[in-house]
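ok trying this again, last paste got cut off
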Amino acid sequence: MGDLSVYASRFSINSQSLKDFDEGLRYITKKKKLQKTSGEEKYLSKILNVLDPIVDSLQRHFSESTLINERNVIEIIKNRHDKNWPTYKEKIILLHQKLHENKMTIFHKDIKILNDIADALDSECAYLFRRLSERK
């Protein structure tokens, strides 16, 4: 598989992950209070598909996800929050735990963190797109 195929594949997978994450984020932003019903579980899983590998990596566990390159996404977030990285990292982990609970209230600060993750994933997609465009 050549470079072009690798970038195209990674771009496609990351773009779909971003689309799904954004759909889940829009849903929970409107709801504010969540229970893990079958309808809400679908949207939460779209967020957790991205958040799980990020938190695994933050906690120094091996992530088996092939949906995103969590290391690159983490690096983007880390660069944006360089001054308060240890605290921000803990906030991501706590939000992840919260999203795995049965009932939860979503606060503005939670949405800000999820938006930050979406922005980092979008930046990763933009990087892959540029690399893909350079190869054509």
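PB: full thing came through this time. The longest strand covers residues 33-35.
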